[in-house]
Design brief:
Structural class: alpha/beta
Order of helices and strands: HEEEHEHE
CATH class of the domain at 60-132: Alpha Beta
Largest sheet: 5 strands, mixed
Radius of gyration: 37 Å
Number of helices: 3
Shape: elongated
Strand content: 15-25%
CATH topology of the domain at 60-132: Nucleotidyltransferase, domain 5
Strand order of the largest sheet: 3-2-1-4-5
Number of strands: 5
Low-confidence stretches: none
CATH architecture of the domain at 60-132: 2-Layer Sandwich
Length: 138
């Protein structure tokens, strides 16, 4: 009882083109995302050092600039007439310290020029270590 005797059977075929496309995309993805690590050819043992903490801390020279352009050195108001005059006031406040650290505390609304004046005065005084103080948002 073969009811399908007159019908021809269709041959099943697998279409390989989409399979090849998917494999190529997977290979490209693997090539792009794989990291290749090179092992060090030379084994290097770095030397170790132990140092004691610095016993003498450098002197801090705190300079404040407010929003209207007034200057103070270590909390004492100093009028700014010129960079040379302010450099002399910085040297006097440092009491001839060899290399004080100049910490500039400028108001957020202070002019850029007032901060540059302090930096130029520090350069004229021979102080190369300059840092800026900030505060975190409340």
């Amino acid at each position: 009882m073969n009811f399908r005797r007159g019908r021809a059977r269709e041959e099943l075929e697998i279409n390989l083109i989409p399979l090849i496309d998917i494999l190529i995309v997977i290979l490209i993805f693997l090539f792009l995302t794989t990291t290749y690590s090179r092992f060090a050819e030379l084994q290097i043992n770095l030397p170790e050092a132990s140092a004691a903490a610095a016993t003498d801390k450098p002197m801090m020279l705190s300079i404040a600039v407010d929003s209207v352009g007034k200057y103070s050195i270590n909390g004492i108001a100093v009028p700014f007439t010129s960079t040379q005059g302010f450099a002399a006031a910085m040297r006097e406040s440092a009491r001839n310290a060899k290399e004080p650290v100049v910490a500039i505390s400028a108001d957020a609304k202070a002019t850029h020029q007032s901060v540059i004046n302090v930096m130029e005065s520090a350069r004229l005084a021979g102080y190369n270590h300059i840092s800026f103080t900030t505060q975190t948002k409340r």
